[in-house]
Amino acid sequence: MQSKFDQIATSWDQNEERAQLHKKIGEALVAAVPVSRDMRALDFGCGTGAMAFMLAGKLGRIDAIDTSAGMIGELNRKLTGANAPDNIFPLNAELKADSFPAGELDLIYTVLALHHIEDVESLIHIFARLLKPGKHLALIDLDQEDGTFHSDTTGVHHFGFDHKTMTEMLQQNGFSNIKISFPAARRRENPDGTVREYPIFLITAVKKSSS
């Protein structure tokens, strides 16, 4: 998976449909989660940092993590540009339970990265450990589909997700106030020329406070 994303990193931001999709998702995320400049956030699976750039003016520190060296390299290049934000900190690594101190983060969000993660429940457990009690998690990904979204399924571990199952997983890992919306969809043209839309969900949740 890493080599696949490394190869396409330099052209990733040139897809206009993807750019518009990120705009819709970013607007929906800000509407669903209270954000402020004193918040520390984690952008999991940040890619070239499209969402981090969109949210940089609304958050404090953004730690942007991705396993693709090519994607992080492109993000670093963008951060050297004129007027680039100074509060995005890229990290080329896998997220582990000790990547950050427990209870360090005010917001964790991830955009279309979860379906590339084999053990999603373990990742949700890590998210819960890293968030402060009462703070927010935002998961953006494909609703369950039949496997036709990706023409190349290398590194794809899930054909979207059943959002009801995701809700149960969040509840089992200490999250409450779970809300689901569908702010966008990706379009794909079939071989016969027809176009299909694949819904994208936004699930927000709050880490429960210790009793």
Written account of the structure:
- The chain has 211 residues and is of the alpha/beta class.
- It has one domain (2-207): 3-Layer(aba) Sandwich (Rossmann fold).
- The chain contains 6 helices and 7 strands.
- A 7-stranded mixed sheet has the order 3-2-1-4-5-7-6.
- β6 and β7 form a beta hairpin.
- The longest helix has 17 residues, at 16-32.
- The chain is globular.
- It starts with a helix and ends with a strand.
- 37% of the residues are buried.
- The mean pLDDT is 91.
How do the strands of the widest beta sheet line up side by side?
A: 3-2-1-4-5-7-6
Indicate the CATH class: Alpha Beta
Oligomer: single chain
Strand content bin: 25-35%
Shape: globular
Helical residues, percent: 25-40%
Can you count the beta strands? 7
Rg from Cα: 16 Å
Mean pLDDT: 91
**What string gives the helices and strands in order?**
HHEHEHEEHEHEE
The helix-and-strand class reads alpha/beta
Number of helices: 6
What fold name stands as the CATH topology? Rossmann fold
Please give the domain count. Answer: 1
